[in-house]
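# nightly structure sweep
# worker-07 picked up a monomer target from the shared queue
# config: single-sequence mode, recycle default, output format = C-alpha cells
# input follows
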Amino acid sequence: MDLGLYIVTGTMPIIDVMQKIGYNGKRIAFVCNGKTLEGCVTDGDIRRHLIAGGSLTAQVSEIANYHPVYLEEDKKSSAAAVMERHYVTAVPIVNSERELIDICFWRGEHSGQEKNIPQLTLPLVIMAGGKGTRLKPYTDILPKPLIPIGEKTITEYIVENFAKYGCSDVTMIVNYKKDFIKAYFNDSETGNGIKFIEEQEYMGTGGGLKLLKECMTGTFFMSNCDILVEADYDKILEYHRKMDNIITMVCAGKKFQVPYGTVQVDEAGQIVGLQEKPELSYRVNTGLYLIEPRFLDKIPDGEFIHITDIIEKCLREKERVGAFLIEDDDWMDMGQMDELESMRKKMGFQ
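# output follows
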C-alpha cells in the first residue's frame, strides 16, 4: 500500500486534499506531521465546510478531526471490530511513536489502483408506489420517483448507479400516479427497458414485493425510490453470500448529539454522573437491501405489510439476516423536505 496516497499536512489547502481523496478512492485522508499521525479528514467534512460557505483555499487543519480513531500495530487484528464500534470505514495503524505505518479499511485493503467495477448482473427492484406525503406539496403534482435532483430525477440516479455494476434488469413497483411515472420513463433514455408492476391497492414495501413472486428466481437488490447509496455493491453481494443471508440490509452509522448536558441519577435521587452533550451512535436502515427469492415466501398474500415486519418474522424464525455497514456520508435520503434540500446541496445543485 502506498501510504502517500492517504497522507496530507495540516497546512495543505482543502482543494489539494480533495484531489488526493479523489485519487485514493477511499474518501479519507490522514493529517500527519512528517510520519506522525495527527488527524483525519473525509470528503463529508469537506462537503459540510463548502455547504457552510467555506473556502477551497483554507487549510485543511480548519476542518480536520484531531481526535481520530487509531490502533497500535499489535492491536491491528481488532480493526474490524473497532470500525464497527465507532462507525468508521478506515482505521490508521501506528507504531509506538504514533507514526502511520498502515491503514485498515472496512471489508478489505485498497490496492491503490483505479477500480475496475465488477459486473454483477443482478436484478434491481425499485419500490415506487408510495404517495410521498412527507414531500407535500411537491408530491401533489409529481410522484416521488420523479422529484428532480438537478437535471435528473432521483430514480434516474438510482438506475445509473446500479447500471455501472451491470444491474440493468430493472423492475419498478408503482401505484400513486403510476401512469405519469410510466410515461416519463418510456420517453427517458435512462428508463429504456424498465419493467413496471402495478399495485392495485397500497401494499406497503413488503406487500408490494410479493408481486415479484413469479418473476424473481435469484438474488436481487431492492431500493426505496427516495435514497441514494454510494457503496461498493459488489462488496455487499460478497458479504451477503458469505454469510448465507436471506436478506441483507444496508445500514449507515448515524451519530446524534444531545444538545444538553445529561445527568445520571440513582434510585435515591442522588446524582451519580454528569455528561456534557453526549454523542449517541446508531445503525440506521438506509432503504437498500439484497434479497433472496425465498424471502418472498415469508410475505402473506394480499396484505398490507412493511418489509421490516417480514424481517422481524425472519428473525423469529432464526433466518440469517445481515447488516452491511456504510458511513453516513455514503447515504442520501430525500424522504422529507429538509432531507431533499440537503441532498441537493450535497450533490452540488444549490
